[in-house]
Amino acid sequence: SRRDQSVSLVRAPRLSWPQWLRVETSNGLFVLRTVVGMLLALAIALRLDLSTPGSAAVTVSIIALPQAGMVLEKSFYRLLGTLLGAVVTLILLANLVQHRDTFILAVAVWIGLCTAASTWFRGFQAYGWLLCGYTTCLIGFPAFMDAPHAFDIAVDRVTIVSVGILSAGFVNAVILPLRSTTSLVQVVRRSFVDFSAFLEAATQ
Questions:
Q1: Which of 20, 24, 85, 114 is most buried, by the most CB atoms less than 10 A from its CB?
Q2: Contacts for 195 with CB less than 8 Å, ≥ 6 apart
């Protein structure tokens, strides 16, 4: 019917072979960068004899994004949140290491403040605030059980995250990086093509 023909004309066109190949190549490079970054982080963490080398590889997978600029931005807030969380944890331990219940209450209050801040901010800033509370849990409770090595535990955690961030940033900057400007240009061009096809279908 005429209505079905109009719907088929307005429907978005399927990707052509060159377009499909370009999209799949971009996806393949994203996977390649992520895997290489995880292996590099794991190798460095093992070389430095860190407590949990797998966490460095996990860090790479968490901050993995298609665009190099977005990876750097997310990495910055993850590192900032980890550092702030570690500092706050050491301050709490220094003052409350002899008071278990008070320490647990202080950690809970800090996590609540970080959660509230994450709802106030947007994007990667909110992610950084969540990392503050998350880091306090990862460092605080093991360090509370082993207070003489609290500083070493905090340094180990920050080093693990730093290794993952540096590995991801290096790989995304070296292996055929996809810039945000390139992605934005492709989105604008695709939107223009779709809009042109829509106008052509609507005028028929």
A1: 85
A2: none
